[in-house]
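Format notes (please read before filing issues)

Several people have asked whether sequences and structure tokens are stored in separate files. They are not. Every record keeps both together, in the order shown below: the sequence lines, then the token lines. Line labels are part of the format and must not be stripped during preprocessing.
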Amino acid sequence: VRVYGLGTVEARIVSKIGFEVGAALVELAADSNDRVARGQVLARLHTAEQEARVARARAALLAAGAGVGKAQAGVARAGAVLAQRETA
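Then the structure lines:
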């Protein structure tokens, strides 16, 4: 027995995708209605601007760390001077 009919097929699961940051699209690895696997890269963004921001943030973090080190050394010196004055 064969049954023929017309109809439409709909996906059981529909997933909305997007990017957390804005950037130019460099590569689109999947298209509408393509079957994709979990973890598959669907698109790539131009990341030079974000990479530059990360580099600047790392440099600022290193500079802040150096500033903390200098401040701690100053506190230690001030503590030593205070200790000398209290014993004199």
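For reference, the curators noted about this record: The chain has one helix and two strands. The mean pLDDT is 90.
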